Amino acid sequence: MKLNIFCVGKLKEEAERSIVARYLERFGQIGAGMGLSLAGITELIESRAASADARKAAEGAELRRRLPEGARVVALDEHGRTMTSEDFAETLRRWQDEGVRSVAFVIGGPDGLDLALVKDADLALSLGRLTLPHGLARAVLAEQLYRAATILARHPYHRA
């Protein structure tokens, strides 16, 4: 199953890019044996529209245009479902068993994601009740993808 990450905005800090790269490299190493791979990260330019709603709508339209056809969409949203790492890994395993070929994780810009995109997603996922900056949200997602792969592989990284 191929995983894609779509982000509104770019990581500006080397420290953030390094953390994300480290966990996605680890994910790639262990995920390959589990039939999981990272298809890529797509960074979109933030909209310059005048209002937050207009920016989210424009960014949502561009995200929809770029999502792989038939992909399960996971919208990262503060009001989404909270999951344990085990639940997250089980969701990926279940989708893989169902024959899902592609999953698209979508991270919004500073204003968040377009509400219509969140509602249409297969899963609205919250990384916790705290509001996270874009770069940290991406790092947490990368680590949780790696952790999910280790859980599925019964690797000792996850010791819960």
What topology emerges from the helices and strands here?
Elements: E1 2-8, H1 14-32, E2 37-44, H2 52-66, E3 72-82, H3 85-97, E4 102-107, H4 115-120, E5 123-126, H5 134-152
Parallel strand pairs: 1-2, 1-4, 3-4, 3-5
Helix pairs in contact: 1-5, 3-5
Task: Using the alpha-carbon principal axes, give the shape.
Answer: globular
What is the name of the CATH topology? Alpha/beta knot
Q: What spatial order of strands do you see in the largest sheet?
A: 2-1-4-3-5
Counted up, domains total: 1
Task: Provide mean pLDDT, rounded.
Answer: 96
* Contiguous uncertain segments of 5+ residues: none
Compact description:
Helices cover 45% and strands 22% of the residues. The protein is of the alpha/beta class.
Describe the structure in your own words.
This protein has a single domain, classed as SPOUT methyltransferase, trefoil knot domain (Alpha/beta knot), CATH 3.40.1280.10. It has 5 helices and 5 strands; from the N terminus they run E-H-E-H-E-H-E-H-E-H. With 160 residues, it is α/β, with parallel strands linked by helices. A 5-stranded parallel sheet has the order 2-1-4-3-5. Helix 1 (14-32) runs parallel beside helix 5 (134-152) and helix 3 crosses helix 5. The protein is globular.
